[in-house]
Write a structure and sequence with these properties.
The chain has 385 residues and is α/β, with parallel strands linked by helices. Helix content is 36%, strand content 12%. Helix 9 packs across helix 11.
């Protein structure tokens, strides 16, 4: 329960609206049925095979969903599936079923369904809805700012490979500010079915465009929530609308000219805050250059440590969904806690799987499950469920 007037933030599906440039593929369910019939040949791991069978049974109404969120395919998931060959679908369904349903069912696997890796915590913007506006975070002497070494990145990717399909390169900062980002992208190539990069596109020069496309990143998200310069530059302080638009146009042109068979999905995605245009207006400006245009629901996280207690007792789903690895190896359960007061440990000292199932992580999950969230800080000031 929460105190009166406090709305919870549903992390399960945080999109407020989405527009697709092209019609979503209609044959996805037929392809999934075909794959299900060939599952023994396509998926040798019997444990994963059982998960995929359950996912298919729920999708086709052949088995009632277990407690918690039912397994359905959102339109953006259908578009991701449409870009994959049939033989990759068991791996993808294994990942997506766990990502969607395990958090609400409190099922814990040996490795997080999604790993969020931070190439850089530094950012060249001070967006009004972001914790980069907190001087306590950005002050260099406080130790939060930095970029990940290539050696650490490789160790993280090596551990995640085969255990995880969803790896997002982003968190507190702008990934393209990391000097080794091109080499990082190249190293991650081909290892995951849901490799995603979030960027403000301010540093999206020609070399970066080629690095992203050559690495076959599955989804590239350009963080924009405006259709004109005045609003963009008011919200994304430090950014220049014309520059960002030109960079996104460049990416689109390079993909069309040099990578015509690329499976990358491009998305302009912004935070839905007062003053942002409706989706139709956004689509009219951006759909020429990207596959999707979306808004995510605003989450008031720009300084959670100063918020009043919310009274929310519902367990946070991210404790079962994703794990964050900061630039210096610090492992954290969420990015709302951007100063790492809940840190689980360090990827420099323990394996990611050991940290995911560590006693400290398990204690935090147990406290959330037993209505003790109001006694955890900063969980008691957060609205994510």
């Amino acid at each position: 329960m929460a105190i009166k007037g406090v709305a919870t933030y549903q992390k399960h599906d945080s999109f407020a609206a989405m527009h697709h440039r092209s019609p979503v593929a209609e044959d996805v369910f037929r392809r999934i049925a075909r794959v299900r019939d060939r599952l023994e040949a396509l998926e040798p791991d019997t444990g994963r095979r059982a998960v995929v069978r359950q996912a298919c049974a729920e999708l086709f109404g052949e088995a009632p969903p277990q407690d918690g969120v039912p397994f359905v395919l959102q339109t953006y998931v259908v578009e991701e599936i449409s870009r994959l060959p049939d033989e990759a679908l068991p791996r993808y369904l294994w990942y997506r079923y766990r990502y969607e349903t395990y958090p609400s069912r409190n099922i814990l696997d040996a490795f997080p369904p999604c790993l969020q890796v931070e190439p850089a915590s530094v950012c060249n913007y001070r967006c009004v809805f972001c914790y980069q506006t907190d001087a306590g975070l950005t002050k260099r002497t406080n130790g939060y700012m930095g970029v990940m070494s290539l050696d650490l990145f490789k160790r993280v990717i090596d551990e995640a490979g085969g255990c995880c399909e969803a790896v997002t390169l982003a968190s507190r900062g702008e990934p393209l500010l990391c000097p080794d980002i091109d080499a990082m992208l190249a190293y991650a190539k081909g290892k995951f079915l849901a490799l995603k990069l979030n960027t403000n596109a301010s540093r999206l020069d020609e070399a970066a465009c080629h690095a992203i496309l050559e690495a076959e990143v599955n989804t590239v998200v350009f963080s924009v929530e405006a259709a004109d310069a005045a609003l963009y530059e008011r919200l994304r302080v430090g950014g220049r609308f014309a520059e960002v638009r030109a960079n996104i146009e460049r990416f689109h042109r390079i993909r069309a000219d040099h990578y015509p068979r690329s499976r990358v999905i491009t998305r302009v995605s912004g935070v839905s805050v007062p003053g942002t245009p409706d989706l139709e207006r956004m689509a009219s400006v951006w759909e020429e250059f990207v596959d999707q245009v979306a808004f995510v629901t605003y989450n008031p996280w720009e300084n959670v440590y100063d918020h009043p207690a919310t009274g929310v007792e519902t367990a946070c789903s991210d404790l079962w969904r994703r794990m964050f690895v900061w630039w210096d190896g610090t492992v954290n359960p969420c990015d709302v806690d951007y100063k790492s007061t809940l840190t689980i440990g360090s990827a420099n000292e323990q394996s990611l799987s050991a940290l995911w199932r560590s006693e400290r992580y398990e204690e935090l999950r147990e406290r959330h499950l037993t209505s003790q969230r109001p006694r955890c800080s900063p969980c008691n000031r957060c609205t994510v469920v």
